[in-house]
Amino acid sequence: MHSMTERFTDALHRIDSDRDVQPMVDLTGDDAELVKLDEHHQTSGKDGATTFWEDYRNVFGDLETTFTHTVVGEDSAALEWTSTGTLRSGKPFRYRGVTVIQGDEERLTGVRTYYDSAAFLQERGGTA
């Protein structure tokens, strides 16, 4: 999973900087499951990966993700990260989370992401 973890982080940086989801879709297996924290956003396969990552990126204006810690196992990895930038509205944000990836060196079979949603609740006028 070491090589896949590096490929995943590179692909995510492409999404951040260029809004290009294709490198991430290329890593995704046909039966992969992708799930966000709220469990209401679950997709599968390459088409699902396209939707998953486009929906993710469309929340933001500017976006930069810094990976702060990674734990890599035989068929999974946990990546801690901090993202900063602006929301679509232009409001600055900073949030942290963990993404767990599963698979092998060739394809991802699963992506689960857990994050601090306070930045988004505040955007809607609520309190954290």
From TrEMBL:
InterPro entries: NTF2-like_dom_sf, SnoaL-like. The keyword Metal-binding does not apply. It holds the Pfam family SnoaL_2. GO terms for molecular function: isomerase activity. Keywords: Isomerase. Residues 7-107 form the SnoaL-like domain. The keyword Isomerase applies. This is Ketosteroid isomerase-related protein. It comes from Geodermatophilus africanus.
